[in-house]
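Example 3.2
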Amino acid sequence: MRRLLIISVLVTGILFGIVAQPEAAIMTFASRAAFAAAFPGATVENWDSYPAGTIFPDGSTTAGITYNSSAGNALVTSNFLALSAPNGLGDTSAGFFGGNDSITFSFGSPLSAFGISINTFATTNGAYTASTNLGDVAASFLNPFPGATTGQFVGFSSTLPFTSVTIAPANGVTYTLDDLRYQSSAPIPEPATLSLFGLGIGAGLAARRRRRLE
């Protein structure tokens, strides 16, 4: 009986380790249309509600998004091609993000999906990356803006909630951003392993009770 109790404790310990160390799985989307179809209720920030020239200093939070740029500060601009006119997002260092510049968006609530359009002359897939605070990385796809031959999109969903995303160039081409879309994380259902964990504890307690009655 004691051996049964020890095995039960070991099994529940292993299951607890599985639950305590989950791994995220991400799904990427090759186009903004595919992302929009998968997440029709996503929140959209296209910076059109701000006057051109608006600056978001590092660490400032607007509409639930906190901005941190690797050079200068985030800048609302109407000087470049935008997916939804008139504005996009650039940087005060040059009006656009440089070929080595990155921008990090942080969110007050955890997300399950993120997508953003990139105005760029880069024409190869993977020209930009989106990295989450969990360490997951999604690559961009060539997805031209309407009426243009260039433009990229990077979008993904994750099985684990994340709170920040960093956009960075992989090939040194300058860029601006537009139509950021994000989906708040839904409540995470209890994993089946948690149920097994509870069953394991229950089995151990039952074994102890039976031993006392014998």
